[in-house]
Amino acid sequence: MKGHQPRKRFGQNFLVSPGVIRKIVDAVAPRAGDTVVEIGPGLGALTEPLLERLEHLHVVEIDRDLIARLHQRFPAERLTIHAGDALEFDFGALKAAGPLKIVGNLPYNISSPLLFHLAEYAAVVSEMHFMLQKEVVDRMVAAPGGGDYGRLSVMLQYRYSMERLFVVPPGSFNPAPKVDSAVVRMIPRKVGVTEGNPRGTGETAIDHALFARLVQAAFSQRRKMLRNTLKEFGGEALLEAQGFAPTARAETLAVADFVRLANVLTAQTQTK
Ligand code: SAM
Fold this sequence. Notes:
CATH architecture of the largest domain: 3-Layer(aba) Sandwich
Bound molecules: S-adenosylmethionine
Number of strands: 9
Low-confidence stretches: none
Radius of gyration: 21 Å
């Protein structure tokens, strides 16, 4: 790490395990001509082995000291460094010949807002591989019925097929975080309304903003029954008309159930 003092505010836990680094790069399986962007390259633990397999790589990094090091270490024609905040970065601007592959050992302090930011670009992405806190990955991939299943699960599973690939212990990083981490693969699903397909694929929330509000309200007080948390959307009447028990709670509904409820509401407002 020679001379770099890890910055907590940027979530800097640098990968130091060659075995874990190899496993991540193998999971990404980059091919020479792929358009790949790494979020938070840091000291280059993943950057270097990725560049061994790629002609070119984009990185987004916020820490100026690390940016200066990256400039010194990698030639500009192989590595394009986007200096700035990944939360504000326009990933759509990178889509070149093909769809984007996004990778990163993400700063854990911004993982949820970053995942929501990235979801806006799902249409131009072919796959993403991220290291995150294991607890967050477990929430992302959780099935209905359990305590891990919540807003993050529904909103991300709506957009992506996701798989937890492997768990990474704290000792694989410097400094070591207090918790286990895990690597997740996220592949965008074909959802969304397009001009030629105004009703989407059948699993598409016609009004995405309404779907997002419904899911947020449903999980806002997860112990409460949906007839209460969804009152502003029609509560008990809405649930019963769609065949759900009036006593149902948010964690018992599948992603497709939330999509169906949102689309019923959209249809109601459109016929008014
Ligand atoms: N990829 C390196 C590794 O695996 O060793 C570093 C990973 S470290 C967990 C997170 C990296 O993201 C750091 O380099 C940090 O400076 C960077 N970072 C933190 N917040 C960021 C942000 N908002 N936008 C872009 N990069 C950020």
